[in-house]
Design a protein that fits this description.
heterodimer, A: 427 residues, alpha+beta, 3 domains, five-stranded antiparallel sheet, 6 helices, 26 strands, B: 546 residues, four-stranded antiparallel sheet, 8 helices, 29 strands, rRNA processing (chain B), BING4_C_dom (chain B), nucleus (chain B), repeat (chain B), WD40/YVTN_repeat-like_dom_sf (chain B)
Chain lengths: 427, 546
């Protein structure tokens, strides 16, 4: 008769009982992914999401430092795609400086006197390479991403070449000043401009006449193209909304998305996209810097300080980790793009843990307790009250419109979409 | 690795017509082949139905996520197939031999020496029937004799860590989150001890506890006492979460369902009630037996419950539908499910182990064990991650081998029988961070994070209303009135003030009731009015006349 087979679980496979030589310090780890061994997984995940939300708030310290030096408010900034650490800033009294962001040190500057006169200066690095003069004042300038041309905006849009002293091309549509201009990162011949007659115009350099013009309800202060999806650009304006517009191949512009900071006095003065193309940052007249998701909605983040006055320009750093804002109080401030991010070298285990916390928080972020914590921001009183006021006003308008519609013959008052409300005319 | 897990390589198989086939290397797909059944174990339910979603973006995002779930389930199944170091135990009966006739000594002869060491009998006749509890890793055991003997034993080397004699009756013992702390239900109160035998806490609120259970994920100590009162205490903060009167008298059957953290108590009327800490009324009331319920046990997957009653029946219940799956004859003083789903029942001095071998929730006899005649078995408990059944009886405790009972592969992050003290400390901190709130206990724990269907606002029942009024009155009564000076502290005035406080507390609730009744009456009237034809409605009376 064959022996009866009986077997009991092997008690010491792989040296559980006596740890193998050299493994005492790092005991072997075994995994069994059976769900029956771990009960109530969803509740555990929910608790972890709650803890993750709380920890995120504890570690949310976005302000890194300020770069002090200008003597008048900072009006514009420029960043070089080939250099990560440097940023140029120009102030309203004509001072141009190059900053090293990492050490908050001024690397180079053009003093005001040098900007005015081109001779009698000892340091040759302060001399401009070329000076172009025009009869009208310039409002904005931008250089092609890939090429030799640059565009200036003033009375009209002029396209210049480095070597010529006269503009190569000139575009004009209407008789109002053009206040901002931006070249498309993907297609070097396309640029978008905004003018003071509340219009946004798209030009193609290969054509002789401007391509498309949109007239909006309010004036656009600044435009930024999405570096990852170069057919979209976002414009910031003097009303409470932003827009993202799409340029299809047939150059038909469509109003796509609507960003809602939901405050009425929030004139957005400048806007810049993150190099990931997924977020953009805006600086506003109400002394705050807001970061939005690219596809619309409320702002993901809002930064403010008592000392930061009207924010005139903002830039996203080229590694998508920092936001630099230049404001009326003559300072450039460096902020983290993600407020609770750990800077510096992160060990793999730490990084995994951060990623897990982020993922579990996103999974439960719609639940009320978690949402309450992640949504919470301290706002300065004017901003908070203004948003509350805006909400009341909007609700009142909507209510009145509903009542008008309810008391008029059905169909006589068609619903106007927000897009049509903002977009007045396309030509 | 056991050889059964290796692939069968095809080495030049000769076909029938004599020509050898070419050597075909094993392809990637064959190695990676896992069956659907294996994957289903890790899938945690069915996938979501994406057809009903109309939003294309959402549909796309959810489809990606579902695919990811599928992939991770497959990866887990592959890991199980290739990376698990141990195979489970088994018992093979040859020919006409039946598994339940195999005795423990035959098993001991066939297995290796370290496993046969796990069979033993500890004879301690002086200290009364023993009850046992294991830690979740299965390494430590707490034994409590009814006459006051408490002991913690390290089962790996069978060494006693600490034993003490508390000189009063001990009815139950349970480990808290690890082997450092255990709670003993002594004669009058509940005590918590350290591993060194130091008495840490004396919990008087629980009273004379009959049975204890510890909810691991929530760090809640649940107890039921002589008067049928259920107490939930949080052992991390010491806060008493809640205590409830079961209203069904003395009951000494209490079990926790490891799947959802619900406590079930068995009563002398044959009912089993399931409780959660945040509601006074039980979640579920089941009439299980025609006589008192004597034993209760939950399957680790939470869908199966075994109950035993004085009506000589052992019933297996499906907890999803609350229906009987199977009825088996026999008494059982104590029941326990193992990690692999074997059910041990014990009565008198006989133990029966039942197993479900066809996969269809049909339990049949697997093994049996009868002890010497005078031994009255008090408690059976399977040891986690081992094929061992611990038996506490009137003459001490024993341990027998039940092949195939325990989960062969442990997960170091869940319960590690070979834990170092550093790992234990880390685990304690981690589990405290992941401590679930008492509100997370519900019958279906997968409902967390899902959308709650819109419910109509339920009107409070009469009982609830009365309870509300009672609570308000009690709150008003408990307010302490300021003692005034200069002769203004007359007792009559105090009484008047107190009465006014009580009336003030009651008034809004009574007003609410009146309002509801009025609205009800109005609605009734309106419906009555509508029954008249329209031309006569002007003559309908608003108020009833004689």
């Amino acid at each position: 008769m064959k022996p009866k087979k009986k077997k009991v679980t092997d008690p010491n496979p792989k040296g559980w009982l006596q740890p193998e030589a050299g493994r005492k310090k790092y005991p072997r780890v075994f995994h069994n992914f059976d769900p029956n061994l771990r009960t109530q997984e969803k509740a555990v995940e929910y608790v972890r999401a709650l803890n993750a939300a709380k920890l995120e708030k504890i570690f949310a310290r976005p302000f890194i430092g300020a770069m002090d030096g200008h003597r008048d408010s900072v009006s514009c900034m420029a960043k070089n795609p080939n250099h990560l650490k440097g940023i140029f800033s120009g102030s309203m009294d004509g001072d141009i400086r190059l900053w090293d962001i990492a050490s908050s040190v001024r690397l180079w500057s053009v003093p005001i006197a040098a900007a005015m006169e081109s001779d009698g200066i000892s340091d040759s690095s302060n001399k401009p390479l070329a000076v172009h003069v025009s009869k009208n004042a310039f409002w904005a300038a931008d250089h092609q991403w890939d090429g030799d041309l640059f565009a200036t905006a003033g009375a009209q849009v002029d396209i210049w070449d480095h070597n010529r002293s006269q503009p190569v091309k000139s575009f004009e549509w209407g008789s109002d000043t053009v206040i901002s201009v931006r070249f498309n990162p993907g297609e070097p011949n396309i640029l978008a401009t905004s003018a003071s007659d509340r219009s946004i115009t798209v030009y193609d350099l290969r054509m002789d006449s401007p391509a498309r013009k949109l007239i909006m309800r309010t004036r656009t202060n600044s435009i930024s193209w999405n570096p990852m999806e170069p057919m979209n650009f976002t414009a910031s304006s003097t009303s409470y909304a932003y827009r993202q517009m799409k340029i299809a191949i047939a150059i038909a512009m469509m109003l796509e998305n609507w960003m809602k900071p939901n405050v009425s006095t929030k004139i957005m003065l400048d806007i810049d996209y993150s190099p990931t193309g997924r977020e953009f940052v805006t600086g506003s007249y109400d002394r705050t810097v807001r970061i939005f998701q690219y596809n619309g909605g409320h702002s993901r983040e809002i930064y403010h300080t008592k000392r930061m006055q009207r924010v005139f320009c903002v830039k996203f750093s080229w590694d998508a980790s920092y936001v630099i804002s230049g404001s009326d109080d003559t300072n450039l401030r460096l902020w983290k793009a993600k407020a609770s991010e750990q800077l510096g070298v992160i060990l793999p285990r730490e990084r995994k843990k951060h990623e897990y916390m982020e993922a579990v928080k996103n999974r439960y972020k719609h639940l009320p307790e978690v949402k309450r914590i992640t949504r919470h921001r301290h706002l300065p009183k004017p901003v908070y009250k203004a948003s509350a006021l805006r909400r009341i006003m909007a609700a009142a308008e909507r209510r009145k419109e509903d009542r008008r519609r309810a008391h008029s013959t059905p169909g006589s008052m068609p619903k106007e979409s927000m897009v049509e409300d903002e977009l007045r005319k396309i030509s | 690795f056991s050889s059964s897990k290796l692939l069968n390589f095809q080495m030049g198989v000769r076909q029938e017509n004599g020509t050898p086939r070419k050597l075909a290397p094993v392809t990637e797909e064959e190695i990676a082949d896992v069956t659907d059944n294996e994957v289903r174990k890790y899938l945690r339910g069915e996938g979501a139905n994406l057809e009903v979603i109309q939003d294309k973006k959402l549909k796309g995002q959810l489809a990606v996520r579902e695919e990811l779930y599928g992939k991770s389930a497959k990866a887990a199944a592959k890991a199980e197939k290739w990376l698990m170091p141990t195979e489970g135990g088994y018992l093979d009966a040859e020919g006409i031999e039946k598994t339940w006739r195999i005795k423990q000594d035959t098993i001991a002869r066939e297995v290796d020496i370290s496993s046969s060491k796990k069979q033993y009998d500890i004879v301690l006749p002086d200290f009364g029937p023993y009850t046992l509890d294991f830690t979740s890793s299965g390494r430590y055991m707490a034994a409590a004799g009814h006459k006051g003997h408490l002991a913690i034993i390290d089962l790996q080397n069978l060494g006693v860590i600490k034993e003490l004699q508390v000189r009063e009756a001990v009815r139950d013992v349970v480990f808290l989150h690890n082997e450092l702390f255990f709670a003993a239900a002594q004669n009058k109160y509940l005590y918590i001890y350290n591993r060194d035998g130091t008495e840490l806490h004396c919990l008087k609120e629980h009273g004379a506890v009959l049975k204890l259970q510890f909810l691991k994920n929530h760090f809640l100590l649940a107890s039921i006492n002589n008067f049928g009162q259920l107490h939930y205490q949080d052992v991390t903060t010491g806060e008493m979460i809640n205590n409830y009167r079961t209203g069904l008298g003395r009951s000494d059957v209490l079990q926790v369902n490891p799947f959802n953290g619900v406590i079930a108590s068995g009563h002398s009327g044959g009912t089993v009630n399931m409780w959660k800490p945040t509601s006074a009324a039980p979640l579920v009331k089941m009439l299980c037996h025609h006589g008192p319920v004597t034993g209760l046990a939950f399957h680790p997957n939470g869908h199966l419950m075994a109950t035993a009653g004085m009506d000589r029946k052992i019933k297996l219940w499906d907890l999803r539908k609350f229906q009987v799956l199977q009825t088996l004859p026999g008494h059982a003083k104590t029941l326990d499910f193992s990690q692999k789903g074997l059910l041990a029942t014990a009565t008198g001095s006989f133990i029966q182990v039942l197993g479900d071998f066809s996969g269809s929730q049909n339990y049949s006899r697997y093994m049996g064990h009868s002890m010497a005649k005078g031994y009255q078995i008090q408690k059976v408990s399977f040891r986690p991650y081992e094929d061992v059944l611990g038996i506490g009886h009137s003459m001490g405790w024993s341990s027998i081998l039940i092949p195939g009972a325990g989960e062969p592969n442990f997960d170091s992050w869940v319960a590690n029988p070979f834990e170092t003290s550093k790992q234990r400390r880390e685990k304690e901190v981690r589990s405290l961070l992941d401590k679930l709130p008492a509100e997370a206990i519900m019958l279906d724990p997968s409902k967390i994070g899902t959308v709650r269907s819109a419910r109509k606002k339920e009107k409070p029942t009469k009982q609830e209303r009365e309870a509300e009024i009672e609570a308000a009155v009690a709150a008003a009564k408990s307010v302490s009135l300021k003692k005034k000076t200069k002769g203004r502290n007359k007792p009559s005035k105090l009484v008047k003030k107190r009465q006014q406080g009580i009336e003030r507390a009651k008034r809004p609730l009574l007003e609410q009731q009146m309002e509801e009744e009025l609205s009800k009456r109005k609605k009734r009237k309106m419906s009555e009015d509508n029954q008249l034809p329209t031309s006569l409605q002007r003559f309908a009376r608003k108020t009833a006349t004689a």
